[in-house]
Amino acid sequence: MKTPDYDSARKFALKLLEDRLPSRLTYHSLSHTRDHVVPAVERLAKLEGIQGEDLLLLKTAAYYHDVGHIQGRQNHEEEGVRVVEANLPGFNYSPEQIQVIRELIMATKMPQSPTSSLGEILADADLDVLGRADYFKRNLDLRHEWATGGEVFTDLEWYSSQLNLLITHDYFTESARMLRDKGKQRNREAVAKLIEHLKGDAHVDLDKLVILKSVNIFSAIPEPALIKAVDLLKEVNVKNSHTFIHKGDQGSSMFILAEGKMLVHDGDLHLNELHPYDIFGEMAALDPEVRSASITAVEDTLLYELDQEDLLYLVETQSAVTRGIFHILCERMRNLMEDRADDFEYIQQFERVIAAAVAVEEGKYQPEMIEGVTKRRDELGQLARVFQRMLRLVEARENQLKREVKDLKIEIDKVKQARQVAEITETEYFQELRSKISELRASQGSEDQV
Questions:
Q1: What is the rounded average pLDDT of the residues 256-284?
Q2: Cα angle vertex 185, ends 182, 188, to 5°?
Q3: Is residue 145 located within the same domain as residue 29?
Q4: Residues whose CB falls within 8 Å of the CB of residue 302, separated by 6 or more in sequence, listed in order
Q5: What is the per-residue pLDDT across 141-155, written as a single tens digit (0 to 9) for each?
Q6: pTM higher than 0.70
Q7: Is residue 343 part of a domain?
Q8: Residue 120's domain spans which residues?
């Protein structure tokens, strides 16, 4: 039997997805297959002990499970099977192997009904997002995709249907349940809260609320605090081709890209693209410095602005925001390390910041550990200063909490003491003793008069 040419089959599927998927598919895109489902399949397969030919067929099915979207959303699984049957023989897949792949793709059809352990893995990988931290971001992508296809829902209709899925869905594999059940529970509770706001009388901007839930800095904030954060956001509209930020500008706000797309560049040098739910400017808001690059809208764009004062308020009052910023700092550490690996002095100072982060976890951090690094005037210096500021805010919050606990303990002790005194003085024995003392005093007074 010939060995399947898996690599060529994989490249063929990716090329189909890249070239022929409609651009309006913001959820069932190339990224959904390549960056989400396939890694989830590989992760679950490893945990479930899948190897050899079974793993090869499972991964092949993962790459082809959504190619049917080229023809449309309805019955896309059957369309995907037709693509597999027409093309995989040319990559040395046998009829028996193609039949396995066919069954795996059909296992993802809603409602999911896998008939094998491999099908259970692919079905779980396809809905891995239900338990992930980026659930709200991807859910917005799905809603936008359906809307552009003519399926429009009110907010209440949409989130009610999503809550129903989160409630009724169960992962098939033990590995998926272990990895995602807790996250799915958090997402279910968050969607239920959104529905409460929709049904209630309290006014809340749901679009802003959901977008904040989609941003890693804010995703873990409790609902009441998140609503307060929504009120702090200011809308900024940027026209296509307008350069919103120029290199060298003084920055003091962070921005969330809600709609549209922007280009980060240094003159004609393209550095990065920004898409919905991306954030930028958060470092400048925490440690005001001139902007290191320009940002230009490449289509009409809606931004939500959070200025420095409001961001610091959230950092000081919400530990979840602090954790989110620490996450961003760690990402920047990794990126800076990769960019400056040839600079020995830079690496030494970078390692000091890493050591400080480790010391924080071990409860051994001292401010002087990064004192010299904070004086740098580049990104590493800014990173160190923000890191130091975050720790100071955390320390101040902990000290305040300790003081409040101490004051509370004193008040509790006073109340306890007063209660104990009352319990003693109100006893029958104490009353009799006080009466006898009064009699003795009266008797002593009579004797003195004599």
A1: 85
A2: 155
A3: yes
A4: 235, 236, 237, 238, 257, 258, 259, 260
A5: 999 999 998 899 988
A6: no
A7: yes
A8: 6-199
